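Input chain follows. Return structure tokens only.
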Amino acid sequence: MIINGKEYNRENLGKIFDYALLSPDVTKDKVEAHLQRAIKYNVSGVHCNPYWLPLVADTLEGTGIEAGIVPSFPMGCDATYMKLRQIEEYCKMLKGRPSCVDAVTNVGLLKGGDYKGFTEDIREIVKLSHSYGYDVKSILETTLLTDQEIAIATQCVCEAGVDYVKVATGRTGSSDMRVFHIIKDNISGDAKMKHAAMGTINVTEQTIMGLAMGVSMFGTGYAHQIIEEIETYYKDLVINTK
């Protein structure tokens, strides 16, 4: 599959996915099976509930796959210092192994018009995470926002220095492809776009659409299915939107 001049195949498709397993009822057996699929498909990162972070990091050691940190997930409503405490402890636990920080923004601050507080919360997370060499993927929870709020949130998190602008957690509904038009119009610096909250229907087609729109990363628990379906049904697909 070739989209805007870039080829996607079995060797590199996995690297566009943060492979998520974040339901509260996840067991050790499920995590271990998820990790084996992650290694098989060579994904970018594995994002599980923080309790499982040691198991995730130990199992992935030497693979280059990130063990994702998800502070204050899925609400993002903890005080900033509590988020930082979580990140600090998880970073120490990882001992320099590959990771990134997938952080939910404080939506209440944004919707209340406290844009400075909203931005500073993320800025502190970026500062700490970058000190450990880890990217920050900032979750806007766009399903709760108006178009204007999505635009402002994108501007704020980019000002704070995030590496990725991510749409949603999936806990408040499925995200809408249209929001990427708003994000693209307001994104700045070196920040990239991350799709998530894709639901369970047409996830492969959503991925292809996202790539065509300039999305760089996808958060989903269906990475294995998407890779297999692209290889089976869309291997010869060519899209050029530029």
